[in-house]
Design brief:
The chain is α+β, with helices and mostly antiparallel strands and 551 residues long. Strands 1, 2, 3, 4, 5, 6 and 7 form a 7-stranded mixed beta sheet that branches. It is built from 18 helices and 13 strands. Helices cover 52% and strands 15% of the residues. Strand 9 (210-213) and strand 10 form a beta hairpin. The chain has helices spanning 18-29, 56-73, 102-120, 139-142, 150-154, 195-205, 256-269, 285-298, 307-318, 328-331, 333-337, 349-357, 365-387, 397-432, 439-469, 471-480, 486-510, 517-549; strands at residues 5-8, 11-12, 34-42, 47-54, 89-98, 124-128, 175-179, 184-190, 210-213, 219-222, 229-236, 241-248, 274-280. Helix 1 (18-29) runs antiparallel to helix 2 (56-73) and helix 2 (56-73) packs parallel to helix 3. The protein folds into 3 domains: 5-179, Formiminotransferase, N-terminal subdomain (Formiminotransferase-cyclodeaminase, Chain B, domain 1), CATH 3.30.990.10; 184-337, Alpha-Beta Plaits (2-Layer Sandwich), CATH 3.30.70.670; 346-549, Formiminotetrahydrofolate cyclodeaminase monomer, up-and-down helical bundle (Four Helix Bundle (Hemerythrin (Met), subunit A)), CATH 1.20.120.680.
Length: 551
């Protein structure tokens, strides 16, 4: 299951006093499960844009704490700045990054908005996807009149806040809380120094297009070719080139690779070549994975590759390292949020082997079996990837690419279970170490032990189910893969069956600790059925492998 990641990008009406800004960001950093990503103060605008992300509930809490602190330390009655604003926390948008829907994001935004209005007595207007009516979707509309016109605006029934009192809060003003799609700032580099020509390409692609005069001399709007894209052309003196600078406001509808290719087409039509691109700020992992797949599919190449390889293809295809090195760990939001912890899957083969052979119980057979299963599926994936590039088989590349992509998904699931098995074992040990000094403590300890043993059974069952799904890939590759690689697929089936049999043994070992016999009976029945199915599948695969090898 994909981890849920939510981003929040509040704008605070203070960009000059770093001590004030620090007080606000410290509130954000105090919340566990949240990572402060960026703090961007502006002296002329007297405004600071802060970005942080993490688990949805933690992000919601950090956002509220930041708004509350801003209300304490910023006095809007004294604020002056170039940027439009109406409150100490002027805007507070929430953005889904990974594993969370826009509907969930809207619910979180509205909940935070309600809390700001109720607990802080600040008028709140919900905008963009969180708006309750069409007019208020526009931030500019919600902010009309700014802070100076807020008192009069709140006296008008039409401007009743969505949350909080319809009363002018002189110190804090009002706040707009919204939900919007992830915005990617993406610049495409051109082999020209002409800002005018770069602007022409920007007009070609941006959704708003350009104004032209028709045959009657009337000004009309001609839309650009890309939806949800804002773009301008400019010359960057530092690099000595012109760029088409874009904000992609809905990367689900217009992803980076589509925007890049469209700029390439429009530039070529004007006699200009694209030399590369750059990302300003962060991007979700999936955006680069989809870009890598897109460029591979254009070449009729398999997309069933590891994430690192897909990212490398995306970076090279779009020239993201044209102006400076592209560091995925600094640009991909999920990588920035990763907790750095020692995982078995991050070890080299020798390190894993040595650790397994050491004088400690973990990693043990449970982790090893999941890894065996992952290697088994990887062999099937390899056969699919190589077969798809076989000379004369170009018309079948998609068939093998899909097989490889499915194999990669199964491999990754099994790799996660390598560490999950060790975690399950550690939970049993932790539960056994709990206090048993009194009845309440003993009851709590007994429940914890039972839950830990159940987890130690469910993990190998999940290994069995996942590994069994890998037989489909291996079987298909034994039957249709390149003849010289049939034995590789067959070896994959042997590794998968070894994985499944080992996981079954693990389950049988741990059921002794579970008192819920109905639960045990159900798990054992499911495990037995999976192993029986796996044995039959492996027999079919080895028979087919023998047939093809002997031809």
């Amino acid at each position: 299951m994909k981890k849920k990641i939510l981003e929040c990008v509040p704008n605070f009406s203070e960009g000059r006093d770093m001590a004030v800004i620090k007080q606000i960001t410290l509130e954000i950093e105090s919340v566990k499960g949240v990572r402060l990503l960026n703090v961007d103060p502006g002296r002329d605008t007297n405004r600071t844009v802060v970005s942080f992300a993490g688990e949805p509930e933690a992000v919601a809490e950090a956002a509220f704490l930041a708004v509350r602190k801003a209300a304490e330390v910023i006095d809007m009655s004294r604020h002056r700045g170039e940027h439009p604003r109406m409150g100490a926390t002027d805007v507070c948008p929430f953005i889904p990054v990974s594993g969370i829907s826009m509907e969930e994001t809207v619910a979180i935004a509205r909940k935070v908005a309600e809390r700001i209005g109720k607990e802080l007595q600040i008028p709140v207007f919900c905008y963009e996807k969180a708006a309750f009516n069409e007019k208020r979707r526009s931030l500019a509309y919600c902010r009309s009149g700014e802070y100076e016109g807020l008192e009069k605006k709140l006296s008008d029934p039409e401007w009743k806040p969505d949350f909080g009192p319809a009363v002018f809060n002189r110190k804090s003003g009002a706040t707009a809380v919204g939900a919007r799609d992830f915005l990617v700032a993406f610049n495409v580099n051109l082999n020209t120094t002409s800002a005018r020509r770069a602007s022409a390409i920007a007009f070609d692609v941006r959704e708003s297009g350009r104004d032209v005069f028709n045959d009657r001399g009337k000004k009309v709007k001609v839309p650009g070719s890309l939806r949800n894209v804002r773009a301008i052309g400019w010359f960057i003196r530092e690099y000595g080139i012109a760029q088409v600078s874009m904000n992609l406001t809905n990367i689900s509808e217009t992803p980076v690779h589509i925007a890049f290719d469209e700029v390439c087409r429009k530039a070529e039509a004007r006699g200009i070549r694209v030399s590369g691109s750059e990302l300003v700020g962060l991007i979700p992992l999936n955006s680069l994975l989809e870009a890598g797949k897109y460029f591979l599919e254009k070449q009729k190449r398999s997309t069933g590759l590891p994430d690192e390889e897909l990212i490398r293809i995306a970076v090279r295809s779009m020239g993201l390292d044209d102006l400076q090195p592209f560091r995925a760990e600094e640009k991909i939001i999920e990588y920035l949020l990763e907790e750095k912890k020692e995982e078995l899957v991050s070890l080299s083969l020798k390190e894993y082997m040595d650790l397994t052979a050491s004088e400690q119980p973990v990693p043990g057979g449970g982790s090893a079996m999941a890894y065996m299963g992952a290697l088994g599926v990887a062999l099937g994936t390899m056969v699919a990837n190589i077969t798809g590039h076989r000379r004369g088989w170009d018309e079948r590349w998609k068939e093998f690419s899909d097989q490889a992509a499915e194999g990669t998904k199964i491999q990754n699931k099994l790799l996660k279970l390598v560490d999950a098995d060790t975690d399950a074992y550690n939970k049993i040990i932790e539960a056994r170490r709990l206090s048993k000094s009194g009845k309440k403590e003993r009851d709590y300890r007994d429940t914890a032990i039972q839950n830990a043993y159940k987890q130690a059974i469910l993990v190998p069952l999940q290994v069995m189910e996942t590994a069994c799904s890998g037989f489909k890939i291996v079987k298909n590759m034994t039957e249709t893969g390149k003849s010289s690689l049939v034995t590789d697929a067959a070896v994959g089936s042997i590794a998968l069956l070894a994985c499944i049999k080992s996981a079954h043994l693990n389950i049988k070992t741990n059921v002794e600790g579970v008192e819920d016999r109905e639960f045990v009976s159900e798990i054992l029945a499911r495990a037995r059925k999976i192993e029986e199915e796996a044995v039959l599948l492996q027999d079919d695969i080895l028979t087919e492998a023998d047939r093809r090898v002997s031809l």
